[in-house]
Amino acid sequence: MAETVLSIEHVGVQFGGLVALSDLDFTVGEGQIVSLIGPNGAGKTTAFNVMTGFLDPTEGMVKYRGAVLNGLKPHEIADLGLIRTFQRTSVFPRDTVFDNVLIGLHRQGKLGLVEAILGLPRARASERAQRERAAELVRWIGLEARANDLAGSLSYGEQRLVGVALALAAQPSMLLLDEPVSGMNASETHTFVQLIRNIRDRGVTILLVEHDMPMVMSVSDRIVVLNYGRIIAAGAPETIRNDPAVIEAYLGQGAKRA
Amino acid sequence: MNQIATLISLAVFASVPLWLQDPYLLNALITTGIFIIGAMSLNLLLGFTGQLSLGHIAFFGIGAYVSALTSLGFDVGIVGDFHIVHVPWPPIVGFVLAIVISGFCGYLVGRLSFSVRGAYFVIVTISFAEVVRLVALNWVELTQGPLALTNIPSITVGLPGLGYLVLKTKLQNYYLVLAVAAAAYFLISRLVHSHFGRAMRGLMENETLAVAVGIDVTKTLTLAAVISAGIAGAAGSLYAHYIRIIDPDVFAFINTVTMVIMVVSGGKGSLAGPVVGGVIFGLLPVFLRPVMPPEAQWITYGGVLILILFVLPKGIVPSLAPRLGLSRAKGNKAVKVTERTAGERA
Amino acid sequence: MLEIRDMVCAYGQVTALKGVTLSVKAGQLVALIGANGAGKSTTLRAISGLVPPRSGSMIFEGEDITGASPQRVLTRGIAHCPEGRRVFPHMTVAENLDMGAYLRSDTSAIATDRDRIYGEFPRLADRKKQAAGTLSGGEQQMLAIGRALMSRPRLVMFDEPSLGLAPNIVERTFAIIRAIRDAGTTVLLVEQNAFAALEMCDHAYLLEAGRVVLSGAGADLIENEHVRRAYLGG
């Protein structure tokens, strides 16, 4: 197996008396695509929040490339190259698509304040480089026709793409995608899967939360299934597809054709 | 397009004293200009980070007092016979110190309140302004309290080899205020168009997403607060050296409200907004004073503000600029970049 | 029942609908499919009065509702269940349902309808007093559907009801939508899961770039070569 980059070690989260996650324990290897699936409310997004510093675990530990993430702020975790997207609010709605990606490039533009304000040559060069990089990303994700539209005016599925583009702008070494293809039809999903594979081939490890089973089954190296905050199954797509507990809790009978 | 409009406006402002010699009107323009600088600094916070500073006048007032005391000197007893004695320094040093110390106060207020933000920031800023006002009122040995600091010297500009120029006349002060306002406008414009500005916008629109792409909330907002407070301090310093007398009334809440009205009516989040709103509400008293008592003037301001926001809900500049073809046109830039990179590939 | 002719809608400078013509017959389940940004959601928003049309006309049961306010459209009998499970998170389940009957004044009938919805969705009955924000995704979707039905619509429009739901919950949601049609309420459905939508509908329209490019029975569209390639991923 590939070298472990992200490890979730016995993580538990409680809200008051409510157990949101309990003894969550799994790893993601370098260059893998791993999916986290489970019913609505099973704790998938909570798990993402723990990994990206939006929530402190009640117990357990999260490590990324040897660094312990517990207690770090979200922007500090982003600085380690672990970048996430969001389910619903994945864009800056009152900015254009192009500017969304520019904001995502924030990590690349670390310049002195004085340089930026005075517009010194280095600042101008950096600004130009960022604009070119943003244009390239917008084109790569297939939204060049929408570059000047406000992100908030885009359809839900297009906003998912903007969310991914601005996450990529932050130059992740690992990407956590929260329901990236919801709101996309089968063909758009198909294109998106190519995109994800392409991202992985550039050396980015991917952890995915998604309900689109055909997509999850085709793209994942490994699948982890959560229910009521616990792992109920983990393994290759073939194993998961036929696991009776997973079918009962999540897939339903119709999913077999996936 | 936008830059041309800015330059034309600047030229118009610069030409005013050539065709307007009435000292009363020139005086109104100078004080209005000073308040516009304050409103621009408030707009940096309110319009570009979404944080409402309802104690903004504190930074202005601190700038005024720092500058006045630096140029007047003071002798303050601390413990027993221990005194701090300060010999007067040139007003221009006071101006610089006003920016630095107001900026530092912005840093403190920012650090204190940005971990909670929203309504807390509003409350912390109001409280801060009130505390500062009480200090100015009660630390009589330093500030003369209600007796006011008087005889504040005018700003002196040193010209190498040519001696000194004391900016005493209204005309000189008009150009001084215009120069500082233009500098502040330029500074804010560069800031909001840099990647710092994008970080601020990102935080205002979708904070969760912004931190997820690596934007440091506290650092970004504190930076905005420091610069905003520093500019307000500069405006305060200009005020002290122009009016040449200041008392604790400078901290009055109504002065903050005036700045908020200028920003909101002109259009928050637009660079020219505070200038347009400031010109309207700064000069309105000039025209209203001869015809109505002060109470009626305030009611009229309220009426004018409501009317503006009713007709142009986003404020004057954001509502009218697109119609005049002066929108930010950043989209067009994006198109060009896309085409160019595409061309380079081909 | 609903006739739309040459409807054109724009957000600012972006024209989202470039002349949509479609009709919905009483008692049918009609599906709108198409790519992202093709104008499906905009069509629903235009019908419910949230986006004013630039031109074109909408006739509902013989009455012109072009440019009518959302309140008027709702009182005429059209309910809109927007995408993304929109519930009032801090209100209880019961309060959310009552919001659906906001424009009605027949108090006793409202109570009857509420009980009927609890009968259809027992999960909601168990959680009457719970804040809607604490419900799971599937339960919030049930609640959004229930709220739409509370206005006693004759036409109910669903915008991507399967969005973000677990596969087994998606199956149940679709079953409920079919049941709504079978009980006599006309349904207009926007759905990204084109296969499921075409399978369950009586009639379907395919939108591309703000125009209807194809229409027909669901089964016919499934067989259509273009639809298969572009929307069914196969």
Explain this structure to me?
The complex is a heterotrimer of chains A (258), B (346) and C (234). Helix content of chain A is 38%, strand content 24%. By secondary structure, chain A is of the alpha/beta class. Chain A has a six-stranded mixed beta sheet with strand order 6-7-8-3-9-10, sandwiched between helices. A four-stranded antiparallel beta sheet of chain A has the order 2-1-4-5, with helices on one face. In chain A, helix 3 (97-104) runs parallel beside helix 6. Chain A is globular. In chain A, 54% of the residues are buried. Chain B has a two-stranded antiparallel ribbon. Chain B has a two-stranded antiparallel ribbon with strand order 3-4. Chain B has 15 helices and four strands. Chain B is globular, with a radius of gyration of 21 Å. Mean pLDDT of chain B is 87; it is low at 328-346. Chain B is mainly α. Helices cover 39% and strands 26% of the residues of chain C. Chain C contains ten helices and ten strands. Chain C has helices spanning 40-47, 70-76, 93-100, 107-120, 122-126, 137-149, 167-182, 194-200, 218-223, 225-231; strands spanning 2-11, 14-24, 29-34, 55-60, 63-64, 78-81, 155-159, 186-190, 203-208, 211-216. In chain C, helix 3 packs parallel to helix 6. Chain C is globular. The mean pLDDT of chain C is 89. Chains in contact: A-B, A-C. At the A-B interface, helix 2, helix 3, helix 4, helix 5 and helix 6 of A face helix 7, helix 8, helix 9 and helix 15 of B.
List the helices and strands and how they pair.
The complex is a heterotrimer of chains A (258), B (346) and C (234).
Chain A: E1 4-15, E2 18-29, E3 33-37, H1 44-51, E4 59-64, E5 67-68, H2 74-79, E6 82-84, H3 97-104, H4 113-118, H5 121-140, H6 156-169, E7 174-178, H7 186-201, E8 205-209, H8 213-219, E9 222-227, E10 230-235, H9 237-241, H10 244-251
Parallel strand pairs in A: 3-8, 3-9, 6-7, 7-8
Antiparallel strand pairs in A: 1-2, 1-4, 4-5, 9-10
Helix pairs in contact in A: 3-5, 3-6, 5-6
Chain B: H1 2-19, H2 23-46, H3 57-72, E1 74-79, E2 82-86, H4 91-113, H5 119-138, H6 140-143, E3 156-159, E4 163-166, H7 170-193, H8 195-205, H9 207-212, H10 217-243, H11 253-266, H12 273-288, H13 294-311, H14 316-320, H15 330-345
Antiparallel strand pairs in B: 1-2, 3-4
Helix pairs in contact in B: 1-7, 2-7, 2-10, 2-11, 2-12, 3-4, 3-5, 3-10, 4-5, 4-10, 7-8, 7-10, 8-10, 11-12
Chain C: E1 2-11, E2 14-24, E3 29-34, H1 40-47, E4 55-60, E5 63-64, H2 70-76, E6 78-81, H3 93-100, H4 107-120, H5 122-126, H6 137-149, E7 155-159, H7 167-182, E8 186-190, H8 194-200, E9 203-208, E10 211-216, H9 218-223, H10 225-231
Helix pairs in contact in C: 3-6
